[in-house]
TrEMBL record:
It comes from the Eukaryota. InterPro entries: AlkB-like (IPR027450), AlkB-like_sf (IPR037151), ALKBH9B/ALKBH10B-like (IPR044842), Oxoglu/Fe-dep_dioxygenase_dom (IPR005123). Belongs to the alkB family. This is Fe2OG dioxygenase domain-containing protein. It comes from Crotalaria pallida. Residues 256-353 form the Fe2OG dioxygenase domain. One of its GO terms (molecular function) is mRNA binding. Gene3D superfamilies: Alpha-ketoglutarate-dependent dioxygenase AlkB-like.
Amino acid sequence: MEEMLRSLNKDEILEALSHGFCHHCQPLLHERIRTILLKNSSGKVNEASSSSDENLERSVLVNMPLNGSASNSDSLSRGLGKQCDSPDSTFSLKGNRQSHFDLSLNDGISGGSSPENGLTEEEKECIRYSQVHIKKDFTLVENVNGRDINVLQGLELHTGVFNPTEQKKIVEFIYRLQWRGKQGKLKERTYSEPKKWMRGKGRVTIQFGCCYNYAKDKKGNPPGIIRDEEVDPLPPLFKQMIKRMVRWNIVPSTCIPDSCIVNIYDQGDCIPPHIDHHDFVRPFYTVSFLNECKIVLGTNLQILGPGEFSGPTSISLPVGSVFILNGNGADVAKHCIPSVSSRRISITFRKMDDSKLPFKFSPDPELVGIKPLIFSPLNKNGNLQNQHVPPLNGNFKKLKLNKF
Ligand SMILES: O=C(O)CCC(=O)C(=O)O
C-alpha cells in the first residue's frame, strides 16, 4: 500500500482519497492532506498551509514577476521585432516570498523556469501573451423595439489567459476560501450557500469588495450593492489576476474591477437568466475553471424547469478563459448558466459605480494605475521589423524588451 501511494503524485493521492466525498468534505480533506504533506516536506507547517487569516493573506502576498512585456500572437505578428515597453516595470511588487499561490507568468512554458532555456521573465511573458486567443465577432440579430440589432455586440472571449498550472492554484485557493467560509472565518456576507441541495437550487457564492443582493433580502434590502454591509476585501491572488488582465489588454485600465463574486457550481447548479445590475459599470469579466460550460444568451430566455433554461444562442466558456460582457451583450441580451453537468467555478470581476460604493470602501492602492503593456514600433536598432508570428519555441532573444 505504502509503495503504491509513493508511486502517485500529490494530486492523484488527493483524488483517490477524496473521490465520492461530498462537496463539503472534499475541500476539508484536501486541506488536511496538503497540510500533512507540507509538514512532512519542511518539518513544520509551511506558511501557505496555515489557515489563519493572517497566514492566508501572507501566503498570497507574493511577488508576481511583472517586469516584462508581451503581445498576443495577433499584435505580435503586427509588431514582432518591435520593442516591448513596460511602463510599469516596477509595479507593485509586494514581498519576496514565493508561495504556492503565486501566479508566475512563466508557468507552463516549455523548459519551465530552468535558467538553461535562456529566456528572461519578459520573454516568457511575451510567449504567454502570444498564446492568448481572442474572439470578438459574436453575432445574434434580434428585433428590439422594431430594429434589428446584434444583441451580442460587445462580447469578447479571451482563451488561454490562465494556464492549467495557474488554474490549479486558483481553484485550490478557492477551495480554501470555501472551507474558511464554512468555518465562519470569512465575513458573514462574504460566503453564502443555498439552503436546499436540489437541482437548480443556485450555487455557492463568495463575494469580495462589496455585498451584492441578487434579490430583495430578508431585511427588505432591494437587489444591488448593499452599501452598509461589509464583506472581505479582494484577496491578493485575485488582485494578481486583475493585474495580469490589465497588462494583457483584456481589462481596460479605465474599468479595473474592485469587487468580484466567486460562483461554485456543483453538478446541477445554475444561474438563472439575468442582466447584471447597473450598480456595476461595464464591462465586467468572468473567468472559468474546472469544466467548460455553455452560457446561454438572448433577449428572451425561457425557464423550462429547475435549472433548465433555453435561448437562441450559447457560447462555450473554456477553462482558463476570460469572457467579457459589454455593450448589447451585457445590457440588451440576458445571460444564464443552465444546470451544469459537472462542477464548475467562475469568478466574475466587476467595477462598482462610484455612487454605489460601500460606505466603508476605500480603493486598493495596488489596483490604481496599473498600465497595459505597450509595443513600440521599433526594434532594438530603431528600425521597423518585418511582420511575422513569433516562433513559440524559437529564439525570443531577438525581442528587445525595454524597461523604463
Ligand atoms: O458563472 C458564470 O460564468 C456567469 C456568472 C454570472 O452571470 C454572474 O455572476 O452574474
